Amino acid sequence: MQRDLKNELKVVVNNSNQDDHDHYFVGGVMQEQIDKCSNQPRRQLFGPFVLERQLNVLVGQTAAGKSVLMVQVLRGIASEEYDAGFPCEASPLKCCYIDCENDTDDWRDRMNGERLPDNIIRKTLDATVMFEDLAEIVTREIKRIHRVEGVQVFGIDNLKWLLSPGKQELENTWKLLKALNLLRSQLGITIILATHSNKDKINSEWTIKDISGGSDINRFSQSIWAVGNIEGQSRQRYLKQLKQRSAQVEFDSSNVAVAELLKAEGKALQFVFMPELNTQERNLVRQMNNEPSKSEQVLELLAENPEISVAEIAKQCKCSETHVRNVKRAKDAA
């Protein structure tokens, strides 16, 4: 498949000001770039699921609550008063929700009278651009909104809606993801991109192979996390990390984050997280697998060698040291 690399590179640096189009390579002194980056550690914006200055991909099936969860994450980033369920280490940041799928009436019903902070703006696509090069339009508009309105965090809902089905879908996925990855690196912005599965994932465990366009998503993103259903629990959902390039994975198959999707009186529809269920693997995602869970593997290693270090257990079980400590703490308390 031939690709016009010259035009695709131009996509990333395009914006509405034609005076900026005199060059297409950006950068400067390499050591100065490293020094600047060293003074700006990546902060958690929604616990370990969303890190600053990354392309973070949220995947889930239709009706799993991806849009609700994305806006909930943006609320936590934009406001000190709102608890999104996982901590945000940054001061309130201006956010832009690029909504390609929902209308305003949907959000009126979901918000249920609860108000959003003023530093979350919402953008939708003009109908006249639907048959144009959406990768170019999306990246150009993100650059303009960042420059003109000072937005630091962008939520895009969602990838599948932006792409036309058919033979060009894979190429357009590659093109858009590559452009977004370059854009977040050059501008220092955070992007949260929602997308769908390529098959029915009801009551089964997510892997990267289940994501539509998964190979390109895995190549160009720094973080991938999934929201899935829990068998027999219509309101419950689990969050699981599939990839995190800049830190250890904290929420894997044996330590998923569990939430209930609720709308209380006068409160928005939202994910209410239940930490006490995080490591209760019965009736969650591990029930379909015969292999030992991460927690069971940790306990087996501790039984064989009580003096083994936390770091060695995490290495052998391919899990985080935090998870090992949680399992040890639960074992000691039993």
Q: Low-confidence parts lasting 5 or more residues at pLDDT below 50? A: 15-20, 286-290
Q: What is the CATH homology-level superfamily of the largest domain?
A: P-loop containing nucleotide triphosphate hydrolases
Task: Classify the fold: give the CATH topology of the largest domain.
Answer: Rossmann fold
Mean pLDDT: 84
Residue share in β-strands: 15-25%
Q: Specify the CATH architecture of the largest domain.
A: 3-Layer(aba) Sandwich
Number of domains: 2
Strand order of the largest sheet: 5-4-6-7-3-8-9-10-11
The major pleated sheet works out as: 9 strands, mixed
Specify the CATH class of the largest domain: Alpha Beta
- Described by the principal axes of the CA atoms, the overall outline is globular
| Total of DSSP H or I helical runs spanning 4+ residues | 11
Q: In angstroms, what is the radius of gyration?
A: 21 Å
Task: Give the termini distance in whole angstroms.
Answer: 59 Å
Helix content percent band: 25-40%
- Count of DSSP E strands? 11
**Element order: H for helix, E for strand:** HHEEEHEHEHEHHEHEEEEHHH
How would you classify the helix and strand content by structural class? alpha/beta
How are the SSEs placed, and which strands pair?
Layout (H helix, E strand, L loop, with lengths): L4 H9 L16 H9 L5 E3 L3 E2 L3 E5 L6 H13 L16 E5 L4 H8 L8 E4 L10 H16 L3 E5 L1 H4 L6 H19 L2 E6 L18 H7 L2 E8 L2 E12 L12 E6 L7 E4 L20 H11 L5 H8 L3 H13 L1
Parallel strand pairs: 3-7, 3-8, 4-5, 4-6, 6-7
Antiparallel strand pairs: 1-2, 8-9, 9-10, 10-11
Helix pairs in contact: 1-5, 1-7, 5-7, 9-11, 10-11
